[in-house]
Structures are given as C-alpha cells and as structure tokens.
Design a protein that fits this description.
This protein is mainly β. 8% of the residues lie in helices and 59% in strands.
C-alpha cells in the first residue's frame, strides 16, 4: 500500500509540472477512485484500483485514469496510466487528444464506450476535431483502437481460470461527420474509413478498406 501511495504521489507531482501555465489561471481539480477485491470458489483472487484525476481551466480540461491490478476481476493486469485525454474548447472550436469516445448516428454509425464490468473498451486513441456553428456542425476523428475481449467464437482458446481475453481486434480509423440545420430539417452526411486486424491464438486475419457512408 505504501508503494502504491508513493507511486500516485510521484504521478500527481509530474502532472502539475506538465502544466505550468495553470499557475497563472483559475484551476479546478477533482478526482474519484474505485477499489475492487474478492475471490471466487475456484480460489481466484483479484484486486483492482482505479484512480481518475481531472485538471481544468477556462479553455483546457485534462483527464487521467490510472489502474493498479494484480490481477483485475476480468482482463489483463495494468499497473500505471490506463487512459488520458486533453480537451481544448474555445468558442465554436473543440479539439481533443488522447482516449476518445464518440456516438454518431444515434449509435448506429459509431458507438464507443468503456464498460469495465465486462472488460469491453471500444474507444480509440487519437484526435477529435469539432466545429459547431448555428447552421452546421462538422466533426473529424482519427485514431487507433485495440479491443481485447473474451469471445465465445473462439471458445477453444478461452482460459476460464485466468479470465483473460482470447480475442484481439486492432482498428485504424478515420471519420468525418457533417450536419446541416435548415429550420426543422436536419441534413447529415457521415463517412468512415478503417482497417481492421483480428487476431487470436491460432490465426491472423486482415480486413482492409472498410468504408461506411450514410446520409440522413
């Protein structure tokens, strides 16, 4: 426990040194923590600590998530920085860099979330740009997503004892979204381009040039 506190202290100090300009403006800081531990009837013991930290001023907002697990309830062990994001907002312009989650087309085109209860995280690490005006909204995303999950499609590779994923999907994606507002009418155009690499313990399959175009 003392080692964990020492690590968190060093990380916190490092974050403040990365943002010296915060000293000259109004700062708001916050955070939350989650602690999970337990054991099952087959003598599987797990412990998982999640720590969220936020720093923000007028234009910038930062989010860091640290995980210390040995092992977690489900998934791979992580000890250190798990997620991060830096958001910039100034008038109609919004820019985000880091781990990003978006919903487009009411979730039919793009629906990204991080559900740690089932160890499913389909967000991406990259950048997001938005321009929001009265008559139109333009969104642009680009990044890479690595999705680990336990899949029944490859049941012969499932390790029931360790509860580790047996399926890995790597996505490289680029997408744009344009919405035009004309009174009560909304005109939307969405296009995504991506490459998907699916890997398990026995085979390797590559899908390329996956495109999706939708107009509403």
């Amino acid at each position: 426990m003392l080692t964990l506190i020492s690590k968190l202290g060093k990380i916190t100090i490092g974050i403040f040194f990365l943002y010296p300009y915060f000293i000259y403006g109004q700062i708001s800081a916050g955070g939350s923590s989650t602690l999970k531990f337990g054991e099952s009837k087959n003598e599987f013991h797990y412990s998982e600590v999640l720590l969220n930290m936020n720093l923000s001023n007028e234009f910038l907002n930062t989010w860091f998530q640290f995980e210390y697990s040995k092992p977690p309830e489900i998934g791979m062990s992580i000890n250190g920085l798990r997620k991060f994001r830096v958001d910039y907002s100034n008038g109609p312009v919004e820019l985000s860099v880091g781990d990003i989650y978006k919903i487009w087309g009411r979730g039919l085109i793009l629906n990204q979330f991080d559900d740690q209860s089932v160890n499913l995280d389909n967000g991406y690490r990259g950048l997001s740009f938005s321009l929001i005006e009265d008559r139109y909204t333009f969104n642009l995303i680009s990044g890479i997503s690595n999705i680990n999950r336990i899949s029944q499609d490859y049941w012969q590779n499932i390790d029931q004892e360790s509860r580790k994923p047996n399926h890995l999907s790597k996505h490289s994606m680029f997408g744009s979204d344009l919405e035009l507002f004309r009174g009560p009418i909304l005109i939307g155009l969405v296009k995504t381009i991506g490459k998907i690499l699916i890997k398990n313990q026995e085979n390797l399959t590559i899908y390329q040039n996956i495109q999706c175009l939708e107009a509403t």
